[in-house]
Amino acid sequence: MVSLRCTTAHHSLLGSPTCLARPRRRACPVVRAAVAVEAGAQAKVSLIRIGTRGSPLALAQAHETREKLKAAHSELAEEGAIEIIIIKTTGDIVLDKPLADIGGKGLFTKEIDEALLNGTIDIAVHSMKDVPTYLPEGTILPCNLPREDVRDAFICLTANSLAELPAGSIIGSASLRRQSQILYKYPSLKVVNFRGNVQTRLKKLKGGDVHATLLALAGLKRLNMAENATSLLSVDEMLPAVAQGAIGIACRSNDDKMMEYLSSLNHEDTRLAVACEREFLAVLDGNCRTPIAAYAYRDKDGNCSFRGLLASPDGSKVYETRRSGSYSFEDMVAMGKDAGHELKAKAGPGFFDSLQ
Question: Where is 51: in which H helix or E strand?
């Protein structure tokens, strides 16, 4: 449960934060990033205020961050030392349209970034797959927590795999990455927009809205809901989203204390893999209308193996590439960049024009 606080993380067009104590009339509908504080927060000033979205998964990630901070720093283990502040983003508010139709980047991060920059929060916890390839000026992301399983889970009440679904079966997914890969391999299936948090999607599935859906296994595991998976898709069957399964934590670039706290939690293997994949994404200038997938990992020899994919939403065109090299920041960033340029050249300029 949360209780509204007498403040709001304001949209850049709204001016200064205002008190919510007295209701106001709305002249027109305006998207505001409502801020809430978890019930039970202490009255004393917290040492760290964590900003997060309010979905069960986002809160699970914020709680994981809080527990890791408490374990690493004794002063943060005291009651009330860490406060969790919930911020609604545009992606949380606009639920009746596909993400691609809402437009813009940072649909799940923009309002949280604004709260960070205006001092409402001290650190921001993000699913890295939601973070644009650029960071707002004045912020830095010095920490990735250890990456969870990157695979997608297939969830269905009537079949054990995509291959078992009869022609015409409807798959619910808001991800063009999943849609394109499904239709490339199973063109007889149909994919429809399917938004909402994990619990909402499972409820829609059980209600018969669709025959099956795909969800990130990482999210199911963090919610202790992995038992809902009918089967797991290998990365050969379904290449994951850029940075899938990784949590990123940002702070202001001039906040040395927060950077010190976050650096102590950083998992370097994850940070390097995410950097490689995001460089690939940056070269392709991917947006919500561009199906892109990538996966970088440390192989059995200790080197980096990378796979990248660029596709058309209908699955009619799929371009893939692979790379391998040393597991170091410079080499992995160069690897991601080179792979991106390769697929960009293969697809040609007309490919991207067709996605606008």
Answer: strand 48-52
